[in-house]
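Q: What does the assembly look like in three dimensions?
Context provided by user:
Components: two
Sequences:
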Amino acid sequence: MHLEVVNQVARPVEVTPIVVFHEVSKWYGNVIGINKLTLQIRAGVTGLLGPNGAGKSTLLQMATGQLRQSQGSVRVLNRQVWNNPALNRFIGLCPEQDAFYEWMTGWDFVHTCARLSGLRRGEARDAAKRTIESVGMTKNQGRAIRGYSKGMRQRIKMAQALVHNPEVLFLDEPLTGTDPLARRDLMDIIQRLAGEGKSVVVSSHVLHEVQSLTPNIVLLNHGRLVAEGHVRDIRNLIDKHPHHIVLVCDDYRKLAGRALAWDDVEGVRVLADQSALMVETRSPDDFYGRLPALSLEDGMAIKAVYSDDDNLEAVFKYLVNK
Amino acid sequence: MTSVSSQASIDQTSRENDAVAHRATRGSLVAALWTLYVLTLRQHLHGKRWMVMGLLFLLPAGLAVLMRVTSPDVPAPALEFFLVWIFIPQALLPLVALLYASGIIQDEQEEQTITYLLVRPIPKWALYLVKLLATFTTTVILTAIFTGLTFAAIYFGENAPPYGGQNLAGESIPLRSLKTIAIQALAVISYCSLFGLMSLVTKRILVVGILYIAVVEGVLANFPFGIRLVTVIYYSRLVAYRTLTFMVPTPGGGTMQDVAAEAWQLDVRADPGLLEHPQFGMCIKVLLTSSAVCAIVAAWICSRREFHFKTPEKD
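A: Here is the predicted structure of the complete assembly.
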């Protein structure tokens, strides 16, 4: 059934596949992570979209050689991935987990990753300097990572993925939990990379994030390919469902007052235990668009923005049951 | 479907990339491995583990000082035997090896930093071996420093005859301490190799390791049965016994007693040359070979293993 759905959605212009999954399955004991997935990801930026547990991280971990497929074949840049460390010269991964060598400074971390990638001393120094600058962390590069904000941590994580100048980048939920300014900057970085000719695969469970980066979308659910193609086709489906966005902010009551005044906001629920608001809107683009300005001008200090995936789940149900 | 020309183009790109990678591989792999080695040493320094181990290792030196102050009649060789040849090898060496070697991979997994290593052009077997090498370095340095310190605490200021820079057997104390450090370094390397391997086959390495230390190395190795042939401590004791003397004056004075033969269940009366036991060279070979086998098997396991951990979405 899902193949029919896949065929309904317009395919992008034919370009060289960078990542090829052929009949790939992955089991964790009795639990299936990826189910007979056949997928070609082409050069450019591709958004990997799916709710939590859809198999996005599993797919990225297989594409970066951390996990071995139980069945089928995974190729990146036309090479087998599993147990092929030489391929890692050409790929970079920004993992989802917020884990670091906390005692290191940002500079030290990126420089060490450069050296681990095989760059010589001078090359590593130059690459670390250049990459840290490109993610806007030069000012904070001398501070210990343990003191970084979420946004800084995401930036420095991005820098380690870029430091060896890979051809293909895999970014696993790079925007999750970041503040609006960091989010905007990280999106700019990804778009700049695309402009430099890098191929980028970005996973997310928030359509809005992905569509700001690329029109090429791959939709996963329960380890299966649900749809792939142009964002407008998926967008049409998703806009039929209200979008829930959670904003974490100390002054959440004031923020609630502001949000309710906007026409596109259909409802606001206060999550006092999390110092947060859940906003319901049918125009997420407009809503997200206002956040950086709100954070800057009103001094609202929005600490984090994230979207639950109820709306995506609804779309997936729609797509799968259609 | 991919067109023929684009497939040819990607094949060409792959070949060019492979050629570049091949040229860069050897030198850059050495740089990557050296960085990994240094990174692991730095991780050892930044953890709280070395402070705990440092305190534990200070215990024998502290006990030596305490004994010398409170019981000056206890002969220094007896003190040395108890602290350096019973306490350190039976409790501290396996413990320090267990704490460091169990974390070679598990620490990186638990802290979820292993991803940063797995996405580098370093084979997984090399990743394990380099981290094991760094673990050898840390544990051997800890062993050397604190064993030397214990020797100093026991013998420092013992200028009156019959010591005067020598023990009762006329051995130079500095030379004896160096030999001791070498033997204990060999033992700690063997333990690290063993526990490193065990940490890849069980998730409860600390429990299993402590049980192993207590039961196999602590109890079974002290019985004169064949089972002790599979313990590290048996071979390191034999190396020590064949290299050093362990004669200590009896409490009444006058006679000398071979404390090691008695404590280690070496029947020197029936077999004065210990001909039924492995010779010095064989003991060294057994320890080194078993360490190498453990390291190779562990590296092989590593090369085939997926290091999967739950991402937040699966929690």
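Follow-up: The two ends of chain B are 38 Å apart (CA to CA).
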